Amino acid sequence: MTLTAARRPVVGIIGNMNLLNESYPVHAGGTMNSQAVAKVAGCLPIIIPSDPHFVSVDELLELCDGFLLTGGRPNVHPSEYGEDETPAHGDFDRCRDAITLPLVRACVARGQPFLGICRGFQEVNVAMGGSLYPEIRDLPGRMNHRMPPDGTIEEKFALRHVVRFQPGGVFARLMGADEVMTNTLHGQGIRTAGQRVVIDGHAPDGTPEAIYIKDALGFTLSVQWHPEWNAEADPVSRPLFTAFGKAAADWAAGHRPVARALAGE
Question: What is the pTM assigned to this prediction?
Fold first, then answer.
């Protein structure tokens, strides 16, 4: 008799459209995302071509047990939150918008788990009706959260500022601390929180950094920093991906709704 290993939960990693060698279009995902999903969350990472010409939200919901909403250089188009496009809003990926925004809403309704990172964090807020600042470093009293233009990848992803959680809140319970050190690699940030979006952690300058969806049945934690970096060793990243992996495993096993404690209940 041939023994087969148990199937790992499948996590769809939202891919970004890039040009390889400045001419060849690809849907890509950072290796560190796959590593965090496979090694810490214990799931099977699958890169999703985030384009409605190739995939549908319904197909993705059936294929995957959870979703990693990754960071990316293009921003959510401001028309998605009722504003006109300006140069400050940067580059866009309208095909990704067309997949991720309805995907977030469907996951919230179904209780299907997702973890939002950086742009993914912003997508969750916009999907729930919130808005974004195009460039938070231009706001009075705010720090520059953008990736340093120079240095090694280790220097670019280095820990730079604390995030303070609501005492006794969802993130504080998960991390076992009210304050943690994080990296910061983003230009935009939350202006108004979407419906049911709970801001559970802030940077010292007041920028929202950790959110979840109130009364959601599934895992909806999202962060503005990049926990995929050094996720196996980092004491902040590891519990986040471990909890996300547990939620995906519960979904794969048919245990639904899942992660109620981490949904704020």
Answer: 0.91
